[in-house]
């Protein structure tokens, strides 16, 4: 089995884009909720019953070929910092991190698959891929799900589909989502209109860490809300269509900003560069906002393309638990701000000032208007 230190030593492909375009759609994630037949669901189970389910599921997941050399641990064997690091890496949920005996996490060595045992349901399985690649994420996770179904019996009803703790997950048990970087829609004050349109057609919009979290660094998570009465493919098709349209709206907003207010864009990108290159104390929220502007600058040609990878790594590495793991000790908020500043300055020390001449609209034709209806 893989050690925790080995797991987090290198960022996953989905964190840094791999070889796909992730300038707007950073990642695609599919999550499946499953429960075992003839066993009480986690919220109603006694500790002994939860441990029994964990004893059945953990070795079954570990035995899957895709999980060779995986990381596998009971949560009661991990300290709070290790669990929070996995939350920050989107490998387990905040709710799962709060659980103790009878819960476990099994994570594929490249972090493309992560399995939570005894979270809200007996199984919460996820696949993450870089860019807009929901179809492939679903295909690979569905294959894993089928193989696991050969080993254990799922709680399934012919009329309702997969039975889950929360009624909103009944049916397919699937949540599909994408993480989008939408700074231009925020700067142009269009984000509210776009997100309202997304909500009207039955999709959910959340912050960087999912339900109940705020949007930081202009990052938004868009996902399906209903899982009953539709097939997985119908859910995916609608979500892909909407996310593609939001991506077009963001692209349009970036072009429009350069056309109408290039000085504002230069100022935002230049200030972000100055702050990150020279700040000695910087909070997580402030750092994420500035990293977002650097990332935008990369897409607009103000910085070399490989700067995007540095930004994507920083999105994880400047989070509080990552800083504590890096330091090897518990840190006060003030100490975290100091170390965060050190890490950011170090990573960006060779980054030259932005090429402000590139921050002007290159589109010589008419910019097509966005479709805010998202039909």
TrEMBL record:
MF term (GO), any: ATP binding
Region (Disordered): 350-375
Entry binding sites for ATP: 27-31, 90, 124, 175-179, 206-211
PROSITE patterns: PHOSPHAGEN_KINASE (PS00112), PHOSPHAGEN_KINASE_C (PS51510)
Record field: catalytic activity: L-arginyl-[protein] + ATP = N(omega)-phospho-L-arginyl-[protein] + ADP + H(+)
Enzyme Commission numbers on file: 2.7.14.1
Signal peptide interval: none
Biological process per Gene Ontology, one example term: phosphocreatine biosynthetic process
The keyword Signal is annotated on this UniProt entry: no
Gene Ontology CC terms: extracellular space
Domain (Phosphagen kinase C-terminal): residue spans on this chain: 24-253
Name of one Pfam family that matches: ATP-gua_Ptrans
Record has Transferase as a keyword: yes
Keyword list, A-Z: ATP-binding, Kinase, Nucleotide-binding, Transferase
Highest taxon listed in the record's lineage: Bacteria
Annotated function: Catalyzes the specific phosphorylation of arginine residues in proteins.
Family: Belongs to the ATP:guanido phosphotransferase family.
Protein name, UniProt field: Protein-arginine kinase
Species in which this protein is naturally found: Haloferula luteola
Gene encoding the protein: mcsB
